[in-house]
Amino acid sequence: MPSTCNVVVLLSGTGSNLQALLDSLQADNPVRIVAVISNRADALGLQRARDAGIEARVLEHQGFAGREAFDAALTDLIDQYHPHLVVLAGFMRILSPSFVRHYHGRLLNIHPSLLPRYKGLHTHRRALEAGDAEHGCSVHFVTEELDGGPLVVQAVIPVQSSDTPDTLAHRVHAQEHQIYPLAVRWFAEGRVCLGDHGALLDGQPLPACGHLIRP
Ligand code: GRF
User: Fold this and answer.
1) Residue whose CA is closest, atom 5 of ligand 1?
2) Could you tell me if 64 and 73 are in contact, meaning their C-beta atoms sit under 8 angstroms apart?
3) Which residues are annotated binding-site positions?
4) Which residue's CA is the closest to the ligand 1 atom numbered 1?
5) Of the candidates 215, 32, 20, the residue with the CA atom closest to the CA atom of residue 135
6) What sign does the CA torsion over 25, 27, 30, 32 have?
7) Which of 23, 65, 87, 172 has the most CB atoms around it within 10 Å of its CB?
8) For 31-81, how does the pLDDT look when each residue is reduced to its tens digit (9 = 90+)?
9) Which residue ranges make up the annotated binding site for (6R)-10-formyltetrahydrofolate?
10) pLDDT tens readout for residues 97-118
């Protein structure tokens, strides 16, 4: 990895994970966010980017004939910035296999559950309905299997008997803001990469659950 790691962030909404990344960029951090791209013009995350002096771009999906056409245009836009890493931070689009293959090994996502549990939506409600004692969030490399790529890091928190989906979401979100900057920094430092059989940290295979953090 060169001395700086160019990162493009894709988002569709609030962008609190983008903000956590921005807030983590002290002088010794090799991460350099070169652009933020949203498929929604009203995404608050775009304003966060502008406030930080970062290029904010909009590519609305509605104008395209289909997923492949949008993803091809998105690839063209992203690649204008020559990123070493593309970070999905609440990007509410399913990505086509060709897009995912194009960024193989340099595409990270964050998901609000302890994968492989609760892929998809409504993760907090589903964890509560299942009576889980623990819940959390996961950073993983993106592969063609939705929410199924090799895990880099998970934060595990206890579920409390008084929890509602909202209270749980709030605590999980706070953990997302810790583990995403950590995983992105590890990637930027060349400590984390995607090997043939899964994610590696410092050259060693990570366990299937990734690096576990229990705050
Ligand atoms: C997060 O919960 C993340 O896990 C999911 O999308 C949400 C984005 O939140 N992929 P924010 O826009 O970063 O606040």
Assistant:
1) 90
2) yes
3) 15-17, 67, 92-95, 109
4) 90
5) 215
6) positive
7) 87
8) 999 999 999 999 999 999 999 999 999 999 998 999 999 999 999 999 999
9) 67, 92-95, 109
10) 999 999 999 999 999 999 999 9
Report whether pLDDT(130) > 70. yes
Cα–Cα distances in angstroms (integers) from residue 193 to residues 83, 126, 141, 205, 206, in the given order: 15, 31, 9, 10, 10
Q: Is the CB of 13 under 6 A from ligand 1?
A: yes
pTM of the model: 0.97
Residue 8, Cβ neighbours under 10 Å: how many?
Answer: 24
Domains located in the chain, CATH noted: 1-103 (3.40.50.170), 110-215 (3.40.50.170)
